[in-house]
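Q: I'm writing up a methods section and want to include an example of the input and output format. Could you take the sequence below and give the corresponding predicted structure tokens, formatted cleanly so I can copy it straight into the document?
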Amino acid sequence: MTVVVLHRRSLGDPPYGEWLGGDAIVVDSSSTAADSASATAELAVLSLASNTHITALVALHPDDQIRAGSLRDHLGLAGQTRDEAVVGADAIRAAELLGAAGVPVVRRAPAATIPDLYRAAHAWGYPLRVRRRRGPERAVVADLGDETALRAFARGGLAEGDTAATAGLTVEPATSGPGHHGPGNPATDAALAVLPAVAGHPLEVAAVRDEFGTWRVDSVRYTGRTTDARRLVCAQARRLESVEAV
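A: Here is the clean output for your methods example:
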């Protein structure tokens, strides 16, 4: 009965072994922070799996959720899958899932090239907002008030066809309407009814009211860093009796 934990040094030094009854093997995933394409952590886990019976895989950091889901899929472990993890990490994927279920979402599109921005301007007009596609905060990269601002932004990084450095951006109509976090709103309640509910992987849904008065889901994000770490670890490891003891 061995639980593998993907751990980043930024999380401090949680007593995983104490929480999991001494069954934890910790794999340092910190080196993948600057390069999400690095497979160092994955290779370490697969090496362990070649000679150890792994029963669960735990990951607390937002940047490790998709990585952990992929490993569970590959190793046939219970818990959050890669597809489920992507919903809490990728703004476009979350919008696609919710939109397909009839949940109103903020209009948003990938923005990897200059034509992507012009298509958004043609469809929605100005002002436009460019954000990071992934990451817990979905940081705003630029607000584009008109075509002059769009051109200036494009000169600063976007290219006609090269998507290597910009595949992680999105574009949407800028809105200054009121926002709402969590349940208790028509849009967030509808989203929470659709989103995958996986023990140990809490999701927060936020909504914003557009210029027409419609509440739309703006973001879905994994909130593990603001939740009791022991509960998350025990839930992901399926040590439910340990969760109850907290």
